[in-house]
Amino acid sequence: MKALPMREIFKPTIITLQILGINFGKYENGKRSFSKISFILTFLYLTLVAVFTVTYWKNRKYEPNFLLSKVVMLVLVNRGFGTLFVMVVLLVSAYSKTFVKLTILSRQIDQLDLDLAKFGFGLEERIAKMSYQHRKFLTSSLLVAHLLFNACGDFSTAWIIPQDKINYFFVLMYPRLVVTTIHITFLTYTKILEERFKMVNEVVARNGQNFDHNIQRAVNCHRILTKQSQNLNSIFNFQLLLTVILSFILILVDLHALLFLIFLKIFSPSGVVSLKNSVMYAIDIVYLIKRCSSLCFEANRTKTLLLGI
Q1: How confident is the model at residue 210, as a pLDDT?
Q2: InterPro entries this protein is in (predicted)?
Q3: 43 within a domain of the structure (yes/no)
Q4: What is the pLDDT of residue 65?
Q5: Is residue 197 a contact partner of residue 302, using CB atoms and an 8 Å limit?
Q6: How far apart are CA 216 and CA 109, in angstroms?
Q7: Of 32-36, 105-109, 125-129, 163-167, which gets the smallest average pLDDT?
Q8: Taking Cα atoms as reference points, which of 8, 20, 23 lies closest to residue 135?
Q9: Quick one: which of 36, 12, 79 has its CA closest to 270?
Q10: Looking at per-residue confidence, does 139 or 266 come out higher?
């Protein structure tokens, strides 16, 4: 079994973004290139999103007799414009620098895999097996997030809107699809780097022939992995900060709407939607913390193993 290169592992991300009309082009020999068709398609998609968003909010009618209109509008405005703002920041960053940096990082990981395979211990076969598992993880995460959480979640939110439900559904869903896709891409990178740290730690923990030579090479691989992790953090740090802040804001806003209903003893579908959204955003934050902490644990574990030799 031959290991998949990083570009093949992240093919689901590339395909998902292309379906959404987003194409970051190619980066080869230090130069970045765009196809005219892809550029025009991306421009048309984003223009349509902007037009539909402006049209929806401009033509929206506020019904004075609509129950909980102010609370519901608070939730919708924060979710709609908050996610749209994060999407714009992500795309501006991706088109300006993130895509190129991720491409370079992916090639560095591919090169590191060649170095790790030289240790033996079955690492070459393990890297090949893990490459397919990483792509499967990415694919399943995108399907679950987009079809279950985003599509169903936004449909339930649009359900409580008094008018123009279909338009709002698509205006709200498109930014969430883009943000979620890029967010899952980051989580997959952390999983890939964590597995490489585990391999280095296994090499360090072994005592056998060529032990001194293997330790030196393992420490060098650890140094490279640490640098790659820092690069990954520098690429996504601002976007992740915005995403976490937005998630906390939306949790507070949804809980505010839920408590409003509870204290007034009002039975409304918006209460179920608010509870569901709060749980979704909380799970998102918890899983992000888990992935980052697992990566840091494996990176720091190497020092403990070296001190125990």
Answers
A1: 57
A2: 7TM_chemorcpt
A3: yes
A4: 43
A5: yes
A6: 19
A7: 163-167
A8: 8
A9: 79
A10: 139
Q: For residues 221 and 259, give the distance between their C-alpha atoms in angstroms, rounded to a whole number.
A: 52
Q: Which residues contact 52 (CB under 8 A, 6 or more apart)?
A: 167, 170, 171
The amino acid at residue 95 is Y
- If we measure between CA atoms, which residue out of 306, 105, 289, 294 comes closest to residue 222? 306
Output the six-digit token pair for 245: 């802040």
Flag whether 1 is in a domain: no
- Separation CA 91–CA 53 (nearest Å): 17
Q: How much is the pTM?
A: 0.87
Asked if residue 36 belongs to a domain, the reply is yes
Domains in the chain: how many in total?
1
Which one is predicted more confidently, 47 or 151?
47
Determine the Cα–Cα distance for residues 118 and 213; give it in Å rounded to an integer. 12
Burial per residue of 180-213, b for 16 or more beta-carbon CB atoms within 10 angstroms, e otherwise: bbbbbbbbbbbbbbbbbbbbbbbbbeeeeeeeee
Question: What pLDDT, on a 0 to 100 scale, did the predictor assign at position 206?
Answer: 74
Read off the pLDDT band of 115 (50, 70, 90): confident
Is a pLDDT exceeding 60 seen at residue 68?
Answer: no
Q: Are 235 and 103 in contact (CB under 8 A)?
A: no
- Average pLDDT over every residue of 252-256: 83
In the structure encoding, which two tokens stand for residue 130, read together?
A: 């893990």
Q: Which among 75, 83, 64, 81 is positioned nearest to 258, based on CA atoms?
A: 75
For 273-300, what is each residue's pLDDT tens digit?
778 888 888 988 999 999 999 999 998 8
